[in-house]
Amino acid sequence: MLAAALVALLCVLWFVCSRWRDVLSGRPVESLRSVRAPLLLIAHPDDECMFFAPTVLGLLREQRPLSVLCCSTGNYYNQGEIRKKELIQSCAALGIPSSNVTVIDHRNLPDNPDVQWDKHLLADLILTHIKQKNVDLVITFDEKGVSGHSNHISLYHTIGCSVMVLESVNVFRKYLSVLDLPISWLFHRDILFVSSGSQYTQAKEAMMCHQSQLLWFRHIYLLFSRYMAINSLHFLHDNKREKDS
Ligand SMILES: *[C@@H]1O[C@H](CO)[C@@H](O)[C@H](O)[C@H]1NC(C)=O
Ligand SMILES: [Zn+2]
Question: pTM for this structure?
Answer without folding.
Answer: 0.84
